From TrEMBL:
Signal peptide: none annotated. The keyword Metal-binding applies. Residues 62-174 form the 3-dehydroquinate synthase N-terminal domain. GO terms for molecular function: 3-dehydroquinate synthase activity; metal ion binding; nucleotide binding. NCBIfam families: aroB. Its EC number is 4.2.3.4. This is 3-dehydroquinate synthase. It comes from Pustulibacterium marinum. GO terms for biological process: aromatic amino acid family biosynthetic process; chorismate biosynthetic process. Its cofactor is Zn(2+); Co(2+); NAD(+). Keywords: Cobalt, Lyase, Metal-binding, NAD, Nucleotide-binding, Zinc.
Length: 355
Protein backbone atom coordinates (compact mmCIF):
# COMPACT_ATOMS: atom_id res chain seq x y z
CA UNK A 1 0.00 0.00 0.00
CA UNK A 2 1.38 3.38 -1.02
CA UNK A 3 1.94 5.93 1.76
CA UNK A 4 -0.81 8.51 2.08
CA UNK A 5 0.48 12.09 2.17
CA UNK A 6 -1.33 14.31 4.65
CA UNK A 7 -0.70 17.97 5.56
CA UNK A 8 3.06 17.69 6.14
CA UNK A 9 3.62 14.04 7.00
CA UNK A 10 2.97 10.56 5.58
CA UNK A 11 0.82 7.68 6.78
CA UNK A 12 2.65 4.37 6.21
CA UNK A 13 1.06 0.93 6.21
CA UNK A 14 2.08 -2.51 7.51
CA UNK A 15 5.65 -3.58 6.62
CA UNK A 16 6.46 -0.19 5.07
CA UNK A 17 5.59 1.46 8.37
CA UNK A 18 8.51 0.11 10.39
CA UNK A 19 10.96 0.56 7.52
CA UNK A 20 9.93 4.24 7.37
CA UNK A 21 10.26 4.57 11.14
CA UNK A 22 13.78 3.16 11.29
CA UNK A 23 14.90 5.30 8.35
CA UNK A 24 13.51 8.35 10.16
CA UNK A 25 15.34 7.46 13.37
CA UNK A 26 18.59 6.97 11.46
CA UNK A 27 18.30 10.42 9.84
CA UNK A 28 17.36 12.29 13.03
CA UNK A 29 19.74 12.50 15.93
CA UNK A 30 17.21 12.21 18.76
CA UNK A 31 18.56 12.54 22.29
CA UNK A 32 16.06 10.06 23.74
CA UNK A 33 12.95 8.17 22.63
CA UNK A 34 9.90 7.99 24.90
CA UNK A 35 7.24 5.38 24.07
CA UNK A 36 3.86 6.22 25.56
CA UNK A 37 1.61 3.22 26.16
CA UNK A 38 -1.42 2.46 28.29
CA UNK A 39 -1.79 -0.64 30.45
CA UNK A 40 -3.38 -2.56 27.55
CA UNK A 41 -0.89 -1.65 24.82
CA UNK A 42 2.02 -2.18 27.22
CA UNK A 43 0.92 -5.79 27.61
CA UNK A 44 -0.34 -6.55 24.10
CA UNK A 45 1.29 -4.19 21.58
CA UNK A 46 4.67 -3.17 22.97
CA UNK A 47 6.06 -6.75 22.68
CA UNK A 48 5.03 -6.71 18.99
CA UNK A 49 6.49 -3.25 18.36
CA UNK A 50 9.86 -3.30 20.15
CA UNK A 51 11.44 -6.03 17.97
CA UNK A 52 10.67 -3.82 14.93
CA UNK A 53 12.55 -0.84 16.42
CA UNK A 54 16.15 -0.41 15.22
CA UNK A 55 17.99 2.38 17.05
CA UNK A 56 21.00 3.08 19.23
CA UNK A 57 19.07 5.81 21.00
CA UNK A 58 18.08 5.32 24.64
CA UNK A 59 14.43 4.24 24.89
CA UNK A 60 12.15 4.86 27.89
CA UNK A 61 8.63 3.44 28.34
CA UNK A 62 5.95 5.59 30.00
CA UNK A 63 2.69 3.86 30.91
CA UNK A 64 -0.67 5.49 31.64
CA UNK A 65 -3.93 3.93 32.78
CA UNK A 66 -6.22 2.74 29.97
CA UNK A 67 -9.58 4.34 29.25
CA UNK A 68 -11.23 7.64 28.34
CA UNK A 69 -11.64 8.47 32.03
CA UNK A 70 -7.85 9.01 32.24
CA UNK A 71 -7.66 11.37 29.23
CA UNK A 72 -7.23 14.42 31.44
CA UNK A 73 -4.80 17.06 32.66
CA UNK A 74 -3.76 14.95 35.67
CA UNK A 75 -2.50 12.21 33.36
CA UNK A 76 -0.69 14.83 31.25
CA UNK A 77 1.03 16.18 34.36
CA UNK A 78 2.22 12.69 35.22
CA UNK A 79 3.65 12.18 31.72
CA UNK A 80 5.29 15.64 31.63
CA UNK A 81 6.92 14.90 35.00
CA UNK A 82 8.10 11.48 33.82
CA UNK A 83 9.69 12.94 30.66
CA UNK A 84 11.40 15.63 32.73
CA UNK A 85 12.68 13.21 35.39
CA UNK A 86 13.98 10.88 32.67
CA UNK A 87 16.00 13.67 31.07
CA UNK A 88 13.79 14.63 28.16
CA UNK A 89 14.82 17.70 26.18
CA UNK A 90 13.81 19.46 22.96
CA UNK A 91 15.58 16.83 20.87
CA UNK A 92 13.54 14.00 22.40
CA UNK A 93 10.99 12.00 20.41
CA UNK A 94 7.64 10.74 21.69
CA UNK A 95 6.17 7.61 20.09
CA UNK A 96 2.48 7.19 20.97
CA UNK A 97 1.59 3.50 20.80
CA UNK A 98 -2.10 2.99 21.45
CA UNK A 99 -5.65 3.94 20.68
CA UNK A 100 -7.18 7.38 20.41
CA UNK A 101 -6.67 8.21 24.09
CA UNK A 102 -2.93 7.56 23.83
CA UNK A 103 -2.45 9.34 20.49
CA UNK A 104 -4.63 12.34 21.45
CA UNK A 105 -3.09 12.76 24.89
CA UNK A 106 0.44 11.84 23.81
CA UNK A 107 0.28 14.30 20.92
CA UNK A 108 -0.89 17.03 23.32
CA UNK A 109 1.90 16.24 25.80
CA UNK A 110 4.50 16.32 23.02
CA UNK A 111 3.12 19.52 21.51
CA UNK A 112 3.37 21.34 24.84
CA UNK A 113 6.46 19.85 26.53
CA UNK A 114 9.20 22.50 26.22
CA UNK A 115 6.85 24.19 23.70
CA UNK A 116 6.95 21.15 21.47
CA UNK A 117 8.94 17.99 20.76
CA UNK A 118 8.57 15.66 17.78
CA UNK A 119 6.11 12.80 18.02
CA UNK A 120 5.03 9.80 15.96
CA UNK A 121 1.62 8.12 16.25
CA UNK A 122 1.20 4.35 15.99
CA UNK A 123 -2.54 3.71 16.33
CA UNK A 124 -3.32 0.21 17.58
CA UNK A 125 -7.13 0.20 17.52
CA UNK A 126 -9.37 0.26 14.45
CA UNK A 127 -10.92 3.52 15.67
CA UNK A 128 -7.59 5.29 16.01
CA UNK A 129 -6.36 3.95 12.67
CA UNK A 130 -9.26 5.41 10.70
CA UNK A 131 -9.90 8.50 12.83
CA UNK A 132 -7.14 9.71 15.16
CA UNK A 133 -4.39 8.81 12.66
CA UNK A 134 -5.14 11.77 10.37
CA UNK A 135 -5.82 15.41 11.03
CA UNK A 136 -3.31 16.80 13.51
CA UNK A 137 -5.77 17.06 16.40
CA UNK A 138 -4.40 16.53 19.90
CA UNK A 139 -6.27 16.98 23.12
CA UNK A 140 -7.75 15.88 26.40
CA UNK A 141 -11.15 15.94 28.08
CA UNK A 142 -12.26 18.60 30.55
CA UNK A 143 -14.14 16.61 33.15
CA UNK A 144 -16.61 14.61 31.08
CA UNK A 145 -16.55 17.08 28.17
CA UNK A 146 -14.84 15.47 25.21
CA UNK A 147 -11.66 17.01 23.76
CA UNK A 148 -12.27 20.49 25.20
CA UNK A 149 -8.55 21.25 25.60
CA UNK A 150 -6.02 20.69 22.84
CA UNK A 151 -4.01 22.04 19.93
CA UNK A 152 -3.58 21.30 16.24
CA UNK A 153 -0.12 19.76 15.88
CA UNK A 154 0.97 17.25 13.25
CA UNK A 155 3.15 14.21 13.92
CA UNK A 156 6.36 13.37 12.08
CA UNK A 157 4.58 10.34 10.64
CA UNK A 158 1.78 7.89 11.35
CA UNK A 159 2.35 4.13 11.19
CA UNK A 160 -0.60 1.79 10.68
CA UNK A 161 0.05 -1.92 11.17
CA UNK A 162 -3.12 -3.98 11.06
CA UNK A 163 -1.30 -6.78 12.92
CA UNK A 164 -2.15 -4.86 16.10
CA UNK A 165 -5.84 -5.55 15.46
CA UNK A 166 -5.20 -9.21 16.39
CA UNK A 167 -4.95 -8.02 20.01
CA UNK A 168 -8.22 -6.06 19.92
CA UNK A 169 -11.47 -7.14 21.65
CA UNK A 170 -14.53 -7.40 19.39
CA UNK A 171 -16.28 -4.41 20.99
CA UNK A 172 -13.25 -2.22 20.18
CA UNK A 173 -13.34 -3.46 16.57
CA UNK A 174 -17.00 -2.46 16.36
CA UNK A 175 -16.21 0.92 17.87
CA UNK A 176 -13.80 1.63 15.01
CA UNK A 177 -16.35 0.47 12.48
CA UNK A 178 -18.59 3.40 13.46
CA UNK A 179 -16.13 5.95 12.07
CA UNK A 180 -15.76 3.92 8.87
CA UNK A 181 -19.55 3.86 8.45
CA UNK A 182 -19.52 7.63 8.98
CA UNK A 183 -16.92 8.12 6.23
CA UNK A 184 -19.19 6.33 3.80
CA UNK A 185 -22.26 8.34 4.83
CA UNK A 186 -20.58 11.73 4.43
CA UNK A 187 -18.33 11.05 1.45
CA UNK A 188 -18.91 7.94 -0.65
CA UNK A 189 -22.09 5.89 -1.12
CA UNK A 190 -20.14 3.08 -2.81
CA UNK A 191 -17.92 2.82 0.28
CA UNK A 192 -21.04 2.82 2.49
CA UNK A 193 -22.49 -0.04 0.43
CA UNK A 194 -19.55 -2.29 1.37
CA UNK A 195 -20.84 -2.36 4.93
CA UNK A 196 -24.25 -3.76 4.05
CA UNK A 197 -22.80 -7.26 3.72
CA UNK A 198 -19.53 -8.07 5.45
CA UNK A 199 -20.08 -11.78 6.10
CA UNK A 200 -17.39 -12.75 3.60
CA UNK A 201 -14.91 -10.04 4.63
CA UNK A 202 -11.25 -11.17 4.52
CA UNK A 203 -8.30 -9.55 6.27
CA UNK A 204 -7.20 -8.17 2.89
CA UNK A 205 -10.64 -6.60 2.47
CA UNK A 206 -10.32 -5.03 5.92
CA UNK A 207 -6.88 -3.62 5.05
CA UNK A 208 -8.34 -1.99 1.95
CA UNK A 209 -11.35 -0.61 3.82
CA UNK A 210 -9.02 0.92 6.43
CA UNK A 211 -6.82 2.37 3.69
CA UNK A 212 -9.83 3.84 1.86
CA UNK A 213 -11.22 5.24 5.12
CA UNK A 214 -7.95 7.04 5.83
CA UNK A 215 -8.00 8.46 2.28
CA UNK A 216 -11.57 9.76 2.77
CA UNK A 217 -10.67 11.53 6.00
CA UNK A 218 -7.37 12.80 4.63
CA UNK A 219 -9.04 14.31 1.56
CA UNK A 220 -11.29 16.34 3.86
CA UNK A 221 -8.46 17.40 6.19
CA UNK A 222 -6.23 18.53 3.32
CA UNK A 223 -8.93 20.99 2.28
CA UNK A 224 -9.70 22.29 5.78
CA UNK A 225 -7.12 21.54 8.50
CA UNK A 226 -8.51 23.89 11.17
CA UNK A 227 -12.17 22.84 10.80
CA UNK A 228 -13.54 26.15 9.56
CA UNK A 229 -15.79 24.62 6.92
CA UNK A 230 -15.60 21.24 5.14
CA UNK A 231 -13.90 19.39 8.00
CA UNK A 232 -17.01 19.91 10.11
CA UNK A 233 -18.62 17.18 7.99
CA UNK A 234 -16.44 14.65 9.85
CA UNK A 235 -18.55 15.42 12.92
CA UNK A 236 -21.65 13.73 11.47
CA UNK A 237 -23.28 11.90 14.38
CA UNK A 238 -20.90 13.49 16.89
CA UNK A 239 -23.01 16.41 18.19
CA UNK A 240 -25.43 14.08 19.93
CA UNK A 241 -22.94 11.18 20.01
CA UNK A 242 -20.43 13.09 22.14
CA UNK A 243 -23.21 14.27 24.46
CA UNK A 244 -24.42 10.67 24.89
CA UNK A 245 -20.84 9.49 25.47
CA UNK A 246 -20.29 12.20 28.11
CA UNK A 247 -23.61 11.41 29.80
CA UNK A 248 -22.86 7.68 30.07
CA UNK A 249 -19.33 8.46 31.29
CA UNK A 250 -20.62 10.74 34.05
CA UNK A 251 -23.60 8.69 35.28
CA UNK A 252 -22.45 5.96 37.65
CA UNK A 253 -25.66 4.00 37.09
CA UNK A 254 -24.86 3.62 33.37
CA UNK A 255 -22.41 1.33 31.61
CA UNK A 256 -19.76 3.51 29.97
CA UNK A 257 -20.00 3.52 26.18
CA UNK A 258 -17.06 3.29 23.83
CA UNK A 259 -16.69 6.27 21.50
CA UNK A 260 -17.92 4.33 18.47
CA UNK A 261 -20.91 2.94 20.37
CA UNK A 262 -22.05 6.48 21.20
CA UNK A 263 -21.35 7.79 17.68
CA UNK A 264 -23.40 4.91 16.22
CA UNK A 265 -26.41 6.18 18.17
CA UNK A 266 -25.60 9.75 17.13
CA UNK A 267 -25.56 8.81 13.44
CA UNK A 268 -29.01 7.20 13.60
CA UNK A 269 -30.33 10.31 15.36
CA UNK A 270 -28.62 12.60 12.83
CA UNK A 271 -30.08 10.58 9.96
CA UNK A 272 -33.58 11.05 11.34
CA UNK A 273 -32.94 14.77 11.90
CA UNK A 274 -31.83 14.89 8.26
CA UNK A 275 -35.23 13.49 7.29
CA UNK A 276 -37.07 16.04 9.42
CA UNK A 277 -34.99 19.04 8.38
CA UNK A 278 -33.71 18.31 4.86
CA UNK A 279 -36.26 15.78 3.54
CA UNK A 280 -33.62 13.05 3.50
CA UNK A 281 -35.40 9.85 2.40
CA UNK A 282 -37.00 7.95 5.30
CA UNK A 283 -36.14 4.73 3.43
CA UNK A 284 -32.46 5.74 3.63
CA UNK A 285 -32.88 6.57 7.33
CA UNK A 286 -34.29 3.08 7.88
CA UNK A 287 -31.38 1.61 5.90
CA UNK A 288 -28.83 3.49 8.02
CA UNK A 289 -30.53 2.37 11.23
CA UNK A 290 -30.66 -1.25 10.04
CA UNK A 291 -26.99 -1.37 8.98
CA UNK A 292 -25.75 0.30 12.18
CA UNK A 293 -27.85 -1.95 14.42
CA UNK A 294 -26.32 -4.96 12.63
CA UNK A 295 -23.05 -3.96 14.29
CA UNK A 296 -24.19 -2.28 17.50
CA UNK A 297 -26.70 -3.36 20.12
CA UNK A 298 -29.42 -0.86 20.87
CA UNK A 299 -28.66 1.12 24.04
CA UNK A 300 -31.38 1.89 26.59
CA UNK A 301 -31.82 5.65 26.88
CA UNK A 302 -34.51 6.66 29.36
CA UNK A 303 -36.95 9.55 28.98
CA UNK A 304 -35.46 11.36 31.96
CA UNK A 305 -31.93 11.10 30.44
CA UNK A 306 -32.83 13.29 27.48
CA UNK A 307 -32.76 16.74 29.11
CA UNK A 308 -29.24 16.16 30.41
CA UNK A 309 -28.02 14.80 27.07
CA UNK A 310 -29.49 17.78 25.21
CA UNK A 311 -27.94 20.23 27.69
CA UNK A 312 -24.51 18.60 27.19
CA UNK A 313 -24.68 19.47 23.48
CA UNK A 314 -24.06 23.14 24.27
CA UNK A 315 -20.41 22.25 24.85
CA UNK A 316 -19.96 20.88 21.31
CA UNK A 317 -16.99 22.59 19.62
CA UNK A 318 -18.93 23.20 16.38
CA UNK A 319 -21.31 25.54 18.17
CA UNK A 320 -21.04 29.27 17.52
CA UNK A 321 -22.56 32.20 19.42
CA UNK A 322 -24.42 29.79 21.67
CA UNK A 323 -26.17 28.06 18.75
CA UNK A 324 -25.99 24.26 18.43
CA UNK A 325 -24.98 23.30 14.89
CA UNK A 326 -25.56 19.87 13.32
CA UNK A 327 -24.06 18.08 10.35
CA UNK A 328 -26.95 16.50 8.45
CA UNK A 329 -27.40 14.61 5.17
CA UNK A 330 -29.19 15.73 2.02
CA UNK A 331 -28.20 12.35 0.59
CA UNK A 332 -25.62 9.65 1.30
CA UNK A 333 -22.29 11.23 0.42
CA UNK A 334 -23.86 14.71 0.46
CA UNK A 335 -23.59 16.31 3.93
CA UNK A 336 -24.58 19.84 4.96
CA UNK A 337 -23.02 21.72 7.90
CA UNK A 338 -24.24 24.28 10.43
CA UNK A 339 -27.88 23.14 10.49
CA UNK A 340 -29.95 24.24 13.47
CA UNK A 341 -32.67 21.98 14.83
CA UNK A 342 -35.11 22.44 17.70
CA UNK A 343 -35.48 20.21 20.73
CA UNK A 344 -38.76 18.72 19.52
CA UNK A 345 -36.97 17.35 16.45
CA UNK A 346 -34.28 15.87 18.69
CA UNK A 347 -36.92 14.20 20.87
CA UNK A 348 -38.58 12.75 17.75
CA UNK A 349 -35.20 11.38 16.63
CA UNK A 350 -34.71 9.67 20.01
CA UNK A 351 -38.21 8.22 19.73
CA UNK A 352 -37.31 6.84 16.31
CA UNK A 353 -34.09 5.30 17.68
CA UNK A 354 -35.87 3.67 20.61
CA UNK A 355 -38.70 2.23 18.47
Amino acid sequence: MKPITSTDYNVYFNTDAFTALNEHLEKNNYSKIFILVDSNTNANCLPVFLPQLVTNCEVEIIEIEAGEIHKNIETCTGVWNAISELGGDRKSLMINLGGGVVTDLGGFVAATYMRGINFINIPTTLLSMVDASVGGKTGIDLGTLKNQVGVFCTPEMVLISTDFLNTLPSNEMRSGMAEMLKHGLIADENYWNFFKNLQNLTLEDLDKLIYDSVIIKNNVVLQDLKESNLRKTLNFGHTLGHAIESFFLNDESKTTLLHGEAIAIGMILAAHLSHQKLNFSIEKVDEIKSVILNYFEKVAIEENDLDTIISLMKHDKKNTYGTINFVLLEGIGNPTIDIKVDNNMILKAFEYYKN
